[in-house]
Amino acid sequence: MQVRPINAQTWLGAFNINQAIEVTAGQRVLYVSGQTSNDANGAPMHPGDLAAQFKLAWKNLVEVLAAADMKPGNIVRLNLYTTDVEGFMAKANELVPMFANAGCKPVSTLLGVTRLFEPSIMIEIEATAVA
Predict the structure, then answer these.
(1) How far is Cα 54 from Cα 12, in angstroms, rounded to an integer?
(2) For the chain, how many helices (H) and strands (E)?
(3) How many angstroms separate the first and last alpha carbons of the chain?
(4) Residue 25: is its pLDDT beyond 90?
(5) Are 96 and 15 in contact (CB under 8 A)?
(6) Cβ atoms within 10 A of the Cβ of 43, count?
């Protein structure tokens, strides 16, 4: 698989994301449902703590990737849905390194939403990975 980042502008680099990614010779595509701050039984965790919720949602996403024999570096799209955009941006310096240090430099969209499936959930991470 060949991955070519395309960045007509460079400001997104501060968030460790690309404007576009071209993938050629990919053989497998994994579409991952939104991962949230839920334990193995589905119980919501860390109410009111966006950073802790992000960390658990990211851990859950990495587990899904591993189950498909992929790694965070295989992620080409990472969409973040949050009920608190300002809170996420305030914690970006803490949260972005989690995926950056794992080799993930995707295209990404941050979306503010009114609520997610469970009222205490503040963030949901959706991904597309290619191998």
Answers:
(1) 20
(2) 2, 6
(3) 6
(4) no
(5) yes
(6) 9
Contacts by residues 88-92 (CB-CB < 8 Å, ≥ 24 positions apart) = 88/50, 88/54, 88/123, 91/50, 91/51, 91/54, 92/15
Contact between residue 51 and residue 91 where contact means Cβ atoms under 8 Å apart: yes
Question: Helix or strand or coil: residue 101?
Answer: coil
The string of pLDDT tens digits covering residues 75-97 is 999 999 999 999 999 999 999 99
The encoded tokens of residue 23 equal: 């993938």
Domain spanning 27-130, CATH class: alpha beta
Where exactly are the structural domains of the chain? 27-130
Chain CA centroid to CA 63, Å: 13
Are the C-beta atoms of residues 128 and 76 closer than 8 Å to each other? yes
Q: Where are the alpha helices (DSSP H) in the chain?
A: 50-67, 85-100
Please state the rounded mean pLDDT for residues 5-28.
91
- Provide the angle, in degrees to the nearest 10, between the axes of the packed helices 85-100 and 50-67: 40
